[in-house]
Amino acid sequence: MSEQRQAYSVSDLRTVTEKIFQHWNVPVEHSITIADTLISSNLRGVDTHGVARIPGYIERFRTKLVEPVPEIKITSRMPFAASVDGGNGMGPVVAQAAMHEVLKRAESFGIGVATAKHSNHFGTAAYYALQAAENGCIGICLSPASKSLAPFGSMEPLFGTNPIAAAAPAGKHSPWVMDMATSIAARGHIRLAARHGQAIPEGWALDKEGRPTTDAEAALKGVMLPFSGVKGSAIAMLIDILGGVLSGSAFGGAIRDMTQDFTAPQDVGHFFLAFQIEALMPLEEFNARMEEEIARLKALKPADGFKEVLYPGEPEARKEKQRSRDGIPLTVQVADAIRKEAEEAGLGFPSPVLASA
Question: Pairing mode, if any, of strands 111-119 and 81-85?
Fold first, then answer.
């Protein structure tokens, strides 16, 4: 079941998003960063991590669980590495500070790495990995999340859906970008199915008794399952180690749920890595080889039901071009929720530019 949507101007949504956060005493520079991460997600078609997140983010301000003006501290034990204490600031603000350190060090030393602690939900991991690709680097970004995923063999959750992203330049093409959760499906898909009373595919989740379920409501009360069983479970734990154990932030199920737990700050950690391609090969040569790699992929005969073979990041790049031109589609529910936040801040909410299915 599809929801009726209406498209809104990118610039209008960006402006109202910035001003909503400024109303909650977020500095202008930080509000621009937050808005950019959210708008970028919508433009690339990742609507679960776009402006729909605004009400959830604001609720953390209402309950005084996020610092609008965090004291971000950066320490370094080795020249190519940085440890960022986010001071319980907004995730995108803390993550951007860490990514800035990574790229600065990559420029100087060929490689840069950073961990961040005392942060919050940071949006899409690809937003940060892409910055590496745009600067002649290959980038990796990951972050543990609040527990919802059962490790292989368990009926109880310990890890989150723990996203990981990697990005690389691709010559004349848009960057190669992998951005995925370690669960079979995003939890947002289950919430959407529950809202419409639809079943979910078997294998996505277990109910609270540890039994496989296709009931979306039962799945939300139970646990998510890792993709590929033990393999996805291992990657989820790796992300917990790098973004949680190594960063000095919460790990092993201790991250608080952004929308359910209002007892204390989330204490999310992140991990970022970027290295210069020039350290191993001339960038021009790498780009030429990437173009050949993509050409070989594109020359493959599509399987039944497919019109063409796409590389990771290509669908999102196409979506970004289309939405930059036509606007960002929002469901009535999402638009109304953001409108409510705007009105509370004494702001108007933009009118849609056209109808979108």
Answer: parallel
Q: Are 150 and 11 in the same domain?
A: no
- Per residue in 248-276, pLDDT (tens digit) is 999 999 999 998 999 999 999 999 999 99
Number of domains within the chain: 3
Q: Which tokens go with 48?
A: 């679960």
Residue 148 carries which side chain, given as an amino acid letter? S
Question: Which residues are within 8 A (CB) of 221 and not within 5 positions of it... i.e. 6 or more apart?
Answer: 207, 208
What residue numbers bound the domain in which 155 lies?
70-183+225-315
302 DSSP 8-state letter: P
What is the mean predicted confidence (pLDDT) over 27-48?
Answer: 97
Structure tokens at 175: 């960057």
Q: Is the pTM of this model over 0.85?
A: yes
What average pLDDT does the segment 340-346 reach?
97
Nearest to 58 by CA among 257, 265, 341: 341
30 with 14, same domain: the answer is yes
Pair (300, 270) in one structural domain:
yes
The yes-or-no verdict on residue 3 having pLDDT over 80 is: no
**Residues making up the chain, counted from first to last:** 357
- 28-43 vs 314-326: helix crossing angle, rounded to 10: 110
Asked if 108 and 243 sit in the same domain, the reply is: yes
Q: Whole-angstrom Cα distance, residue 208 to residue 43?
A: 36
246 CB-side CA count, 13 A: 19
